[in-house]
Structures are given as C-alpha cells and as structure tokens.
Amino acid sequence: MAPHTEQLTRPAVQLRGLTRSFDGRTVLDGIDLDIPAGQFTALLGHSGSGKSTLLRAVAGLDHEVAGSGQLSAPERVSVVFQDSRLLPWRRVLDNVLLGLDGKEAVRKGREALAEVGLEGRERAWPNELSGGEAQRAALARSLVREPELLLADEPFGALDALTRIRMHGLLRELWERHRPSVLLVTHDVDEAIVLADRVLVLERGRIGLDLTIDRDAHARGEYRGRLLAALGVTEDVR
Amino acid sequence: MTATAVSTAPALPETDHRVRRRRSLAPGKRVPAARLVGPALLVVLWAVASAAGALDPGAIPAPWTVLDTGAHLWTDGTLPDDILTSLQRAGTGFVIGLTAGVVLALASGLSRTGEALIDGTVNLNRAIPTLGLIPLFILWLGIGETFKIAIIAIVVYIPIYLNTHAALSGIDSRFVELAEVQGLSRVRFIRQIVVPGALPGFFVGLRLGVTGSWLGLVVLEQINATSGLGYMMFQAQNYGQTDVILVGLVVYGIFGLVSDSTVRIIERRVLSWRRTLSN
C-alpha cells in the first residue's frame, strides 16, 4: 500500500484494549475505538463514567495513572478545557501564541483570533473578557497550532445557555473549515446531537452505544431518545 | 390621581412604590493622598504643642529645631557621610539577600531534590532570631562591615525566600497541564508560567525584605558601629541631643517610606494585569 493512501485510511485515533484504573477501581475497561481522520465525535457519559479519563489518556495527560492497552494519536493535538485556562498575566494574543514564536506565528494568532470573532481584543487581559470570549480565545489557542486532533473536555459546560448556542455554531463552523478530528466530551445529549457526526456513550468503562448521526435526517428526536435510554435516563413525556 | 382610583385601589404605603436604594457597605470612594492625612495631622499637633510650650524641648524638641539641626548636620556635620554609609550597608545586604532568596526559592520550588535540601534548612534558619546571630558573626567575620552586611542579607533573604517559595509551589496545576498540552519546554514553562505566576508572592516577600533591611540596619548600627546613622544617634544619646536622635529617626523613616513606595510602584507596573481585578 502506498504511504499516502495508508495515511488516508488509517484512523486518527486508535485505541485497543485501553484500560485505566484509579486505586484498583477500573474506570476504562478495555476500550477499542477508531476515530477516522476528520470525524467529529462526541463522547457522552455520566459524571464519573470515565469520559474525561479517556480524553486525558488520548491527550497524554494521564501521568501516574495505572493502565494498559494500545493508543495511537496524531502528532499535533490541541486540547480545549472546560475553563478557558488563559494565563492571567499574558495578553489575549500572547495566550493564543503560548508555546509558539516567530512572526508567522503572530500572524496566525491574529488570524485565529479574528476567526473566533475576537479581532481587536489582542491586547486585552484575560480578566477583561467575558466567559464566552475567554472560551473563544481558548479555541483560537487550540486552532493556531493547526491540530490534526482537537480534544474538548466539556468546553461549553461553564457558559450560559445563549452563549453556548453561539459557541456550538462557531465550533461546527471552525471544524468544517479546518477539518481536524474532534473528540468532544460532554454530558449534554442535545449538544452531542447538534455538533457531532458520531456519538459514543461511555458506560461502566466501556462504549455502550456507538451512534452515527445523519445530519440531514429529521430524526433528532429519535437519536435523543436512544441516547438518553443508553444513559439510563427516562423522560416524562406529557 | 382621581378620587375613584383611590377608592378602588387599596392604599399602599409610599415606600412600596419607590425603589429604595440599599445602604452601601463599601467604604466609599478613595480620596487621593488620603494616607498622608494622618501623619500630617500628627506633625501639626506636634508643632502646635511645641509652640504652646506643652512639650519639654529636652525630651521632644520642636519640629523646626529638628529641621534646623538636620540642616546644620547636613552642611557642617557628618550627616551625608553617615547616610551614605548606612545606605551602602543596607543596599549591599539587601541585594545579597534578594539574590539568595530568589535563587534558593527557585531551586527549592522547581526540584524535589532542591526542596529536600533547602526548604527545611531555611525554616530552621528562620526559627533562630537573626539578631541573635550577631555575637557569633562578630567572632567569625570580625567587627567590620562584612558581618553587618551578612546579618542584613539574612534578615532580607528569609521573607523573600518564604513568600516566593510558597508562590512557586502554589502554581495552579491546571496551568501545568496547559503547559504540557501546549508542548512547552521546561525552560519556557519556568519563564512563561512559573515565574510570572510566582511574582505576586515574590513582591510580598520583597516588601517585607526591604523593611527588614532597615530594621537590621538600625540594630546593627546602634550596637557595633563607628559610622552611620545609628552611630550618630547612639552618640547623640550620650550627649543628650534629642534633636539629633529625631533627625536620625526622620531619615530612617524617609528611607523606609521611599523604598517601600518604590517597590510598590514597580509591583504595580509588573503586575499591571492584576489592576483590572481591583478596579
């Protein structure tokens, strides 16, 4: 097989028998998962279901966590956290450029800020931004490195409902333009359906449901019902 | 309002219609230079009491006498020399203490080995009153300048070390994670995250250190010195010259105020990102 075709077909993220445990309690129990390049995947689960553990494992942030299994992820990975995690002592542009330098990086940083609608705020301090603006700056920081894989750990969890809707639109738009593979961890079923092409439900350390979302279909309600059922939530229908 | 309206609507007390403003619990707006009001009032009281003859000039000379003596000592006496000597001692000791405090805090805050070696030792040093080391230091270093500078350096390095070290070990672990995600090298991590994050703590230590250097100086110059402000005051005590003692105190006070304000101005500039918080 020619190298470039192999790259095309090889999934961006590949997990084989991934196991992680804390103090003898198994959180991830032999997970097998392929995320194709460019796919927008959402990972749903209750709090404590291990979804953050999975994301941190893929991000390579789980030092000193006991576990086994195989994991391959791309070279360029960016992470968006629930909090914007901007350094309060660096101006917005300098936060976006954290870890990069050179004129080219500055140009890209400005571009990324413009893309998330923060043009003109380059010199602002993070303290001066609203919650939504700060999270947009964090998105710009992850974009500027042109990631092959974008990991997002409940990135909109701390935002108000209206801001969250706007951020959904922005994230989807950015993904369509740059096409990184995305793994979005969330506990919001509707957010997962709105954003992702594929929704996984993590349950007791295993993937309980793997659902492909047909974005053209008008079956949102059905997806919602199936996902909620997989999460063990029953809705009162009046 | 018509009579019919009054009869149909139940009469409500006036206050229900108005929006009553809550009493503010904040102390209110800041007055510029408000800090100077207290000291200025004290000086005025002192002057009035002296003019009225309510103060014994032998115990507390009038403010103008002190100014007179100060001017006289400045032009005809040894005041400029004494000030210079004192400044040199305090300055040299301060710079050595500052360097030692920062270097030790970095070494102990950034590596476990450093922490094991340094932190306990510094805390042991802190438990011993530094001024209690004077007799030993005189025996070791002689009664010259070296031991004075050494004592001042010790007085200065301890608060700088403690506060900087606390700030370094208190760096938010979320920022450490961010640095890992962004692929920062260790050097960059220290330069861009650890050091700026520890600066607020460092400045607390710096201000304590500056005050400490003057404190150490006063004690040292009154015990073992043949020059300097403290020596001048000590001599004045022997001859009952309260005005000279007051001149010395005023100079010490000015030094303390100026150095503290300088540190504060630097702090405000360096930590300008924090200003948005307090506004």
Amino-to-carboxy terminus distance of chain B: 46 Å
Secondary-structure element order of chain A, N to C: HEEEHEEHHHEHEHEEH
Number of helices of chain B: 12
- Number of separate helices of chain A: 8
**Judging from the principal axes of the Cα atoms, what is the shape of chain B?**
flat
- The low-pLDDT segments of chain B are 1-7
Number of strands of chain A: 9
Kindly give the count of domains of chain B: 1
The first-level CATH class name of chain B: Mainly Alpha
How would the global form of chain A be characterised? Answer: globular
Average pLDDT figure of chain B: 87
CATH topology group of the largest domain in chain A:
Rossmann fold
Oligomer: heterodimer
Rg calc of chain B: 28 Å
What is the CATH C-level name of the largest domain in chain A?
Alpha Beta
> Mind telling me which CATH architecture of the largest domain in chain A this is?
3-Layer(aba) Sandwich
Q: Give the biggest beta sheet of chain A.
A: 6 strands, mixed
Taking the alpha carbons of the first and last residues of chain A, their distance comes to: 57 Å
How would you name the CATH homologous superfamily of chain B? MetI-like
Helix content of chain B: over 70%
User: How many whole angstroms does the radius of gyration of chain A measure?
Assistant: 18 Å
What's the helix and strand layout?
The complex is a heterodimer of chains A (238) and B (279).
Chain A: H1 3-9, E1 13-22, E2 25-35, E3 40-44, H2 51-59, E4 66-72, E5 77-80, H3 92-96, H4 103-115, H5 131-143, E6 149-153, H6 161-178, E7 181-186, H7 189-195, E8 198-203, E9 206-212, H8 220-230
Parallel strand pairs in A: 3-7, 3-8, 5-6, 6-7
Antiparallel strand pairs in A: 1-2, 1-4, 8-9
Helix pairs in contact in A: 4-5
Chain B: H1 3-8, H2 37-51, H3 63-76, H4 79-110, H5 112-127, H6 134-141, H7 145-169, H8 173-181, H9 186-223, H10 229-238, H11 242-270, H12 272-278
Helix pairs in contact in B: 3-11, 4-5, 4-7, 4-9, 4-10, 6-7, 7-9, 9-10, 9-11, 10-11, 11-12
